[in-house]
């Protein structure tokens, strides 16, 4: 990092971010007997700026109606705003068509949508007129699904269950001692038996950014489908799904300044057009008879029932907010904050960072251990000082087992964090070491 990071206080953020904290009212509050809030848990959920809050309120108070149903004015206004949000998100991630964006409740549901859709392909008899290409998704004994050891549970358990239901085999890439994906056995893991390669873009624990194009190229060589877990990348850097060449990608709104209860599944249209539905019912149909139904084209096929309208509109506003700042600016600011945190925590006696120690192919989640203090105990000390972090296995239990760690402390940064807040984190860790007599 540059020597700018040696400065203990004062932001070096670009002008575009100079007043960004003013848009987040929650950051002004105090916690734990008047301590200033230091929010370092954006990897779990981010805070919402005023424009996002206003967008939801404006919709609910002025335009609320069921989308894609009524013929009255409110229904038209609601539908226009809902589909407008889809268009914004499609542009934001570089989707080739608006119809390639499917709204889900969260990334977990998006990944389950793919896994259950593939599982459902095995039950079709080939006569469904709107699913004539579904056979490409069938799995059975002898087929393999490939994941990595650094997945969080949302991109692991659905594939375990798909393999259990179909008789396919789950395989995975390990991780190296220096916290990178181990691709030394790439051609032994991804083979002609591989049907799906599902992997995280950026580890929610290690911060490691994986080589997407290497994995996509290997999957393409054997005709496998790729699924990118983009929960920790889309909020923090410019992500172009078409340029990356992935077949599917999933991310959540609440990690990128948007509301909870809204997520996105991106899928190449020709694949979505052949994928059987996950949930069935209203709005996802083409025709319904008493003994059978045919299904609508994507994305409606995957959005059964009345959708999460205000949440989608709020996510659209979040995308506007991030786009106005510029994702390169956001990524640059986070790199500065993260580099400073790695420098300061890495220099502390008794503190061990669990993840890459530099900024090469790494994001803004910084997990660490403090010798002699359980992660939950140091988390409580930090909380007492007003510093909000996450402790535990971060829904990545196998990864923690790999490194023989029960739990870690994770500080995860976003565009509204400052160098001063890193100093507050470091001071709180030192306070914990003094309290437990280990520093």
UniProtKB/TrEMBL annotation:
<dbReference type="InterPro" id="IPR015421">
    <property type="entry name" value="PyrdxlP-dep_Trfase_major"/>
</dbReference>
<dbReference type="InterPro" id="IPR020578">
    <property type="entry name" value="Aminotrans_V_PyrdxlP_BS"/>
</dbReference>
<dbReference type="InterPro" id="IPR010970">
    <property type="entry name" value="Cys_dSase_SufS"/>
</dbReference>
<feature type="domain" description="Aminotransferase class V">
    <location>
        <begin position="38"/>
        <end position="425"/>
    </location>
</feature>
<dbReference type="InterPro" id="IPR015422">
    <property type="entry name" value="PyrdxlP-dep_Trfase_small"/>
</dbReference>
<dbReference type="InterPro" id="IPR000192">
    <property type="entry name" value="Aminotrans_V_dom"/>
</dbReference>
<dbReference type="GO" id="GO:0006534">
    <property type="term" value="P:cysteine metabolic process"/>
</dbReference>
<dbReference type="GO" id="GO:0030170">
    <property type="term" value="F:pyridoxal phosphate binding"/>
</dbReference>
<comment type="function">
    <text>Catalyzes the removal of elemental sulfur and selenium atoms from L-cysteine, L-cystine, L-selenocysteine, and L-selenocystine to produce L-alanine.</text>
</comment>
<protein>
    <recommendedName>
        <fullName>Cysteine desulfurase</fullName>
        <ecNumber>2.8.1.7</ecNumber>
    </recommendedName>
</protein>
<dbReference type="InterPro" id="IPR015424">
    <property type="entry name" value="PyrdxlP-dep_Trfase"/>
</dbReference>
<dbReference type="Pfam" id="PF00266">
    <property type="entry name" value="Aminotran_5"/>
</dbReference>
<keyword id="KW-0663">Pyridoxal phosphate</keyword>
<keyword id="KW-0808">Transferase</keyword>
<dbReference type="GO" id="GO:0031071">
    <property type="term" value="F:cysteine desulfurase activity"/>
</dbReference>
<comment type="similarity">
    <text>Belongs to the class-V pyridoxal-phosphate-dependent aminotransferase family. Csd subfamily.</text>
</comment>
